């Protein structure tokens, strides 16, 4: 696990440094627990990860309204005064979240996030938890 986290740390750093205006990058489990992060404070990353759990649920509810959809969220982008929030599926039970400043190149961010997910998607999968334990 320690080796995986070290590998993710440099990959998250690479994403943040290759896209100007990136503030924070977080990898999280579907139940809203932070797996890894780059940039920002750990407490902020934990709050962001927890908020993402609710956002995933909302996205699934919206996805259910599309007749030929499997209902799984692939990408959510929220534009906020002062910046952008991105949430992308990154493996079974795992997600990649990014906070970026207003001047970010949205196309570049989407491209770099997809590249990162493709490179390490299988490593980002988070097994289900039962009674607080990974199974």
TrEMBL record:
Coiled coil: none
Membrane-spanning parts: 82-100
Pfam hit, one: Robl_LC7
Keyword terms: Membrane, Transmembrane, Transmembrane helix
Keyword Transmembrane helix carried by entry: yes
Domain Roadblock/LAMTOR2: from-to ranges: 9-100
UniProt-listed PANTHER family: SERINE PROTEASE INHIBITOR RV3364C
Protein name per Swiss-Prot or TrEMBL: Roadblock/LC7 domain-containing protein
Species in which this protein is naturally found: Streptantibioticus parmotrematis
């Amino acid at each position: 696990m320690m080796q995986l986290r070290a590998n993710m740390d440099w990959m998250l750093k690479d994403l943040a440094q290759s896209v100007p205006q990136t503030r924070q990058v977080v990898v999280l489990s579907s139940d809203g627990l932070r797996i890894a992060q780059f940039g920002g404070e750990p407490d902020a990353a934990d709050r962001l990860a927890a908020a993402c759990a609710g956002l995933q649920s909302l996205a699934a509810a919206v996805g259910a309204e599309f007749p030929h959809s499997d209902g799984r969220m692939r990408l959510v982008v929220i534009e906020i005064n002062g910046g952008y929030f991105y949430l992308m599926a990154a493996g079974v039970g795992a997600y990649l979240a990014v906070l970026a400043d207003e001047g970010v190149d949205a196309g570049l961010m989407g491209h770099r996030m997809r590249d990162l997910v493709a490179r390490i998607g299988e490593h980002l999968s988070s097994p289900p938890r039962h009674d607080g334990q990974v199974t």
